[in-house]
Amino acid sequence: MKKVYLFFFCFSFVFFARSQPKLAEDFESGVFPPSGWTLLNGNPSPAYDWTYNSDPNLAYVNSTKQNYPAYLGDGSMVYETDKINANAWAITPPVSLTNGVSYTITFYYRVASAAFPEKLKVTVGSEATINGQSAILWNNNGSTALANDSAWTQAMIHYTPGASGDFYFGFNCYSDSNRFALVIDNINIDTTPTAVPPCATKLTPVNGATNVSAPEALFTWRNPSAAADVLFEIGTTNPPAIIDSSKITSRYYSDLAYSTTYYWSIIPANAMGPAVGCPVYSFTTQAAPPVPANNEPAGAIAIDAYGSVSGSTKSASQTQVADSCNGDIGNANDDVWFTFTPLQSGTASITLTPDLSFDGVMDAYSGTPGSFTSIACADQGAEGQQEILTLPDVTAGKTYYFRVYGFGNAGKDGSFTLAASGITLPVSITSFKGERNGFRNVLSWTTLSEQNSKGFELQRSVNGRDFVTLAFIVSKAPGGGNSTATLNYVFDDLKPFTANCYYRLKQVDKDGRSKISDIILLKGTRANVFALSNVYPNPAKSIINIILTASADNKADIIITDIAGKPIMRQAAQLAAGDNNLSLDVNKLPAGSYIIRAMCANGETALSKFVKQ
């Protein structure tokens, strides 16, 4: 399934305050249509409307189990083909504009196939109705249809109203019948700037930096408030080449050679054009590290059962060609080796957690060096995502070999952590899956048979590493936890994190043995408020956990007061953008009702009530 695209980790540290645009819609709220938007259709029912890019009713999503793309983040707006000519409308909430002032409307668009061009008009009017859309501002970017299927294109429209008041902007897909799909993202309406933006500041690596991480490094900068877009340039010559553009303030870049001087620059831009005279910085990457001791099978590093080790493929070379895994063949030019000796017979798993955006592949073998037999592989995730290698039918005390390498060519090596877990208990779980349904996450799993089963701990994590128990679900198997029939389980997480939610099952046997399942990920929505998303357990006895959602990196004070508001406890916290899982020791508090108040450094406040038993 791999991976010919650049995967961006957008750690958006908010360094600057930008004036609020008239409208900014990135389709990341998880609700469609977004608040205040109106969906209309000029065709009689049933006719296809605009919808969100992960809508399971879309044919592409239903058949491939993948979402339509988004320009940034996870969400976008999609119109998928109909058997009749389209006439679907998505109309914005009212936007207050001033007579004589110039405004700029921007958005990104992309079609699913150039062989099936799409048609789009952008209109404006005084009402959120089709008839109320009185003027066409943009029609297929000046051509007969849209056919950009290989990359996103930004549309830019200038509009000066002849009167002050509320205006509604319409996005009308009127594609011919039996097309494919049109995708829209990041709609923005703002006052037209009068000048190009200034240059970015606080760039790192700093000019002249040495020993910079390779083959991948983190680049950060501060955008000026007038920037609507940012060009990222890097190369071994000056001036460097443009790599891409997007409004972020940091990113990883790979394919950096060792002991090499690079030049890089950040060029902010807006509707008036790019910044002028921005400096070009230089840096030199680190020398090549020594070849890993486990570059050959003979030097394989042992990973303990239920233990973990750190590893790296940097400076490693190929010991054998890549095997096909799930139909994909990577490049094993940097493989390193490990061994695993299970304590019990059954099924075990090895989890690879990458550093930065390393895209790891794992191959497992029985036998000895020079006489290996392939038994399993793992290559499901993309760059920066976990891989889980399942070892079926392992034998207690027998040593198995497995290797790790980066999927891509030279320059894609990196570091990672490996963790071993799981020996099959006498419970056969055939599926474990989840889906986001509105504001809740629905988890479900199926067992074909259960023996001596006590039940399942459903565990949840914000980062895929640190899990806490969400609930215990008692086994449905009758007669002491024994069943040979198929049993289905469903659990609703009514208060999921606003960011990504990682889930796993811990199947518990009546004799105390347990097994950890594979991890599943349900992608969340972008955090745009400061809130206490969850407080649990409630009532609490000794420890209470809180999920504190922050829109940006910030500091906060967590204060526990009595019902009258008298402070009793205070704890400082450094928050990252998204969901933050914090634990508070309330063991010494007397039984009663209390209030948790979280106060962010920028003045935002959130509170919740809990009971101490």
Question: Can you walk me through this structure?
Answer:
The chain is mainly β and 613 residues long. Helices cover 2% and strands 49% of the residues. Strands 1, 3, 4, 7, 10 and 12 form a 6-stranded antiparallel beta sheet that branches. Strands 2, 5, 6, 8, 9 and 11 form a 6-stranded antiparallel beta sheet that branches. Strands 14, 16, 17, 19, 20 and 21 form a 6-stranded mixed beta sheet that branches. Strand 46 and strand 47 (605-612) form a beta hairpin. The longest helix has 6 residues, at 59-64. It starts with 22 loop residues before the first strand and ends with a strand. The model is unreliable at 1-19 (pLDDT under 50).
Question: Keyphrases for this structure?
Answer:
2 helices, Jelly Rolls, 5 domains, Immunoglobulin-like, 2% helix, globular, mainly beta, six-stranded antiparallel β-sheet, 613 residues
- Poorly predicted ranges: 1-19
Strand content of the residues, in percent?
Answer: over 45%
CATH topology grouping of the largest domain: Jelly Rolls
Large-scale geometry: globular
Helix-residue proportion: under 10%
N-end to C-end Cα span? 51 Å
What count of helical segments does DSSP give? 2
**Overall tally of domains:** 5
Known CATH architecture of the largest domain = Sandwich
Question: Major sheet: size, sense and barrel closure?
Answer: 6 strands, antiparallel
Secondary-structure content class: mainly beta
